[in-house]
Structures are given as C-alpha cells and as structure tokens.
Design a protein that fits this description.
Elements lengths: L2 E7 L3 H10 L5 E4 L16 E2 L9 H13 L3 E3 L2 E6 L3 H11 L7 E4 H7 L7 E7 L3 E3 L1 H14 L3 E3 L4 E7 L2 E6 L4 E9 L5 H7 L8 E13 L8 E4 L5 E5 L2 E5 L4 E2 L9 H12 L5 E15 L6 E4 L6 E5 L9 H13 L22
Helix pairs in contact: 1-5, 1-8, 2-8
Length: about 375
C-alpha cells in the first residue's frame, strides 16, 4: 500500500488549497466524504472578501491573500458599508479604533454619502464605516483552480471516501473509509471543517472544541431591484448583511446557531428574521424568496483558525476552525500552513504573519 507524505481529510477550500501548496514538495492524498469537493461550507459561501471580517487577528491573513486573489482575477471590487442607526455613533467609532492600526482601509461616512450608496435607505440609518477595497470572490473559480493545481502537482483525490476508522502504527496512519478502502500516510491533516473535532476523536486525539455554527442566506426578488454596483451592507451591531447578486439580493440575518456537523438546512424563523431586518433598513418591497440555504461555519473557542501540528500527537496536524473567513484567507492560510508542516522558510506572502496566533499549542 502506498504511504503518502500527507493525507488531508476534507477537499473544500481548506483542503484543496493546502493540498496544492504541499504537493510542490511532498506526496499528497486528498480525501473527500461527498460525491464532489466543496459541497458544504465552500459551496454555500456568501462570496465576499472584506478586510475587517473576522476581527483584527484575521486581517493580516486577509490582506496577505488579497494580492494573490486580485492578480488571478478572483476578486471584483464592490466596497462595503458597516451601517449604524442613530445612537450607534459610539459603535462606529469603536470599530474605527479597533481596526485603525490593522492596515485595513476604512473611513467614516455620514448620512448624505450613505444614502447615495444605498437607494431606499430609511432615515434612521445615519452613519457608516466605508471599506472601499471589499470585493466579491469567485469562490467556485478559486476552488476549481486549487483543485486543478493539486491535480497538476500529482495530488491523489478520492471522493466518496468518508473516514470510518483511524489508527497509527509503525510511524504512519491507516485510514479506513466506510466503503472499506484503506489509505496510509505519515501525516494526517485535519481539514474536515465542521467534522474536525470528530476526526480528531476518531484518531484518539483530544478535540479542540471546534464548534459548527449555522449561517442562513436567502436570495430575494425585490422592487426596486438593487443596483448592481451597490456595496455590501453590514450592520454595525451584527444583525444582518446583504448585497446585490444578478439583479437579486443575497441576505443573511448573521445568525450563528450551534449545530451538529451535518448537511445544514435553513430554518423558517431565520429566513423570516432576515427579511424583517432588511425591511427595517430599506423601503424595498420583497416580492419573493427565490432560494434559501444554510452552511456551517466552524470556530475554535477563541475564534482564530488552527494551523499546524498537534503538540500531543505525532503526525497529526490541524487546518481547521476557519469560520466564515476561510475562503477570503485561503491563499495566505494554505501557504503558511504548508510552510509550517514542511519546515520551509516564509516567503513574501507569509513573512509578516504571526504563526503563533494560529498554532494548536495555544490550547495547552
């Protein structure tokens, strides 16, 4: 049986990007439980690159990924507005203070400039933080590109390979799928997203407390239709975000409902809450709910991602806990993680990143 240098479990954006990076220097097996890669969180993303999303400790990963994404044509600039009602000036000021030294490009806007960018904005929304660099991401294109890079570099991708048993002996892991296939690798990389803690437990390793949280998105037909160049609009209080998409509106109530690892489905209450919150922001008439979906965003207890070898287990590495920012940080995250796992020097993309922020050792 072939013994690969690395077996990565999970072929969403995380696993695909890391496989492509590792395969320049090592043999890589990429295992996906579903019929095709990207079925879960990757295929259900709201698809934006936003410099402040995830908090100040995520900004360096986002900024470090920006050049890669722009140069390869995966970003289409849109801009973003964090909007606040009357009485939320303090929250807007706090946002400016929180992100002022991170390198993100942000500025305050008052009501006249805000109303110009969001047609039909209700009068009680009086201020905002403007982020001009925010862009739409071609998520499917980026994921496909990483899978193609991985294939070109010799990665062995196996789909319908849901792992049922994991054992380590003689310096290597043996992974058995539910269908009875067996695979061996010196290092097992946990890129299983919502299933990350479950995979760790199957390998006899202490889980980190990575919690899947359900996020709901709906596609609405509204009158008037939103302008195609309208920015992404986010509530400074974290209760919604929405943006135009092909003449429709993509809207989320910014929900974070704890969930088991599963094929997530939207709940009617979350859909109703999303629509109610939108109608409190703009005077558009909602004509139809055309689509609704949900995905699982998985966070470590401190809401930072986890990259690197587990200090308590030989040959077991984490590439998980990437929440809702895993796609917009994918290039820098995968490059950094591959350098950690391979013991390589940093390059221009990763040199300024503090790997200790994301190391598994922080959990003791």
């Amino acid at each position: 049986m072939t013994v690969y240098d690395f077996a990565i479990v999970g072929a969403g954006m995380a696993g695909a990007s890391l496989a492509a990076e590792l395969a320049e220097h090592a043999s890589v097996l990429l295992l996906e439980a579903e019929d095709a890669p990207g079925y879960h969180a990757t295929g259900r993303s709201a698809a934006f690159w936003e410099e402040c999303y995830g908090g100040p400790e995520i900004v360096p990963l986002t900024l470090a990924s920006g050049t890669y994404l722009r140069d390869r044509g995966f970003l289409d600039r849109r801009g973003a507005l964090y909007v606040g009602r009357e009485g939320k000036r303090g929250a807007l000021d706090a946002f400016m203070d929180r992100f002022g030294d991170t390198g993100a490009t942000i500025e305050r806007l008052e009501r006249p400039a805000l109303a110009e960018r969001i047609p039909g904005l209700r009068s009680e929304w009086t201020g905002a933080v403007w982020e001009p660099a925010c862009a739409d991401i071609d998520v499917a294109g980026l994921h496909a590109d990483y899978l193609q890079q991985a294939k070109t570099r010799g990665v062995d991708l196996r789909t319908r390979a849901r792992i049922a048993q994991v054992e380590r002996e003689d310096g290597a892991w043996t992974l058995a799928s539910e269908s009875g296939e067996q695979f061996r690798a010196a290092t097992l990389v946990n890129a299983a997203g919502a299933w990350a803690d479950g995979l760790a437990e199957a390998a006899g390793i202490r889980p980190l407390g990575i919690q899947p949280l359900r996020r709901t998105v709906v596609q609405l037909r509204v009158d008037p239709a939103p302008p195609s160049d309208m920015p992404l609009v986010l509530d400074i209080s974290g209760r919604f975000y929405f943006k135009p998409e092909a003449g429709r509106v993509w809207l989320s109530p910014h929900d974070e409902e704890p969930s088991e690892a599963c094929d997530a489905a939207p709940e009617e209450l979350a859909v109703a809450e999303a629509i109610d919150r939108l109608q409190g922001v703009v005077d558009w008439r909602v004509e139809a709910v055309e689509r609704r979906w949900a995905g699982l965003r998985s966070f470590a207890p401190d809401r930072r991602p986890v990259y690197g070898y587990d200090p308590r287990a030989e040959g077991f590495a984490w590439f998980a806990g990437q929440g809702g920012f895993g796609i917009q940080t994918a290039p820098a995250a995968a490059r950094l993680a591959s350098q950690i796992l391979l013991g390589l020097e940093r390059d221009a993309m990763t040199r300024a990143l503090d790997a200790g922020l994301y190391a598994p050792e922080r959990f003791g």
